[in-house]
Design a protein that fits this description.
four-stranded antiparallel β-sheet; Arc Repressor Mutant, subunit A; five-stranded parallel β-sheet; Rossmann fold
Length: 232
Amino acid sequence: MAKATVLLVEDDLSLGFVVQDNLKEAGYEVHLCKDGKEGLKYFNENSYDLCVLDVMLPRKDGFELARDIRKISDVPIVFLTAKGMMDDKVTGFKAGADDYITKPFGKEELLLRIEAILKRTKGNEEQKERKQLYQLGKYTFSYDDFELRAEGFEKILTRKEAEVLKLLCEHPNKVIERELLTNMVWGDDNYFVGRSLDVFISKLRKYLSLDDRLKITNIHGIGFKLETESAD
């Protein structure tokens, strides 16, 4: 059976490359990111079985990154930290951590902890594949192909249109915060990115206008919600 895919977010690239090499030697596929915002963007663009996050990260620290991931996923999270203080560990577990490893740590300790977590969670590859295809009322959305279809309608979305729609589809009738959307899709949340998000939301509303049971609602000052009604 193929080993799991791991998102590793570590700003100390010397350590990051060592950990990445160790995990790859053990058969894992590993994506290494150097800061929290890059990590969140990678998390949105790929499917992971486990995240290994340093606590002290630039742009978005490990606790913030874990909280954002927890808003949309229950993927296992392991924290790496140079601190052994109990307060940090409590904060980490409250942020959604499954385990906590204090630096310096050995290769075997890291691998054993990861293997133990994955045995408990038993990531389902078949389920991960199915997640890429969504039924939205009259529409079928294939994220893998960036394709939105309905009877008499076919649209190939841009990558960012597809990423925004995927996030909304994964959490129907729930509000997704603007900051979370912009950081996951663009890797930033500045003013210009925010305006770009509004443009993409307007386009998606137009594409989905064939089905009046579907509506992307702007929750003022918070974010967006894909409202869906089941067919009778």
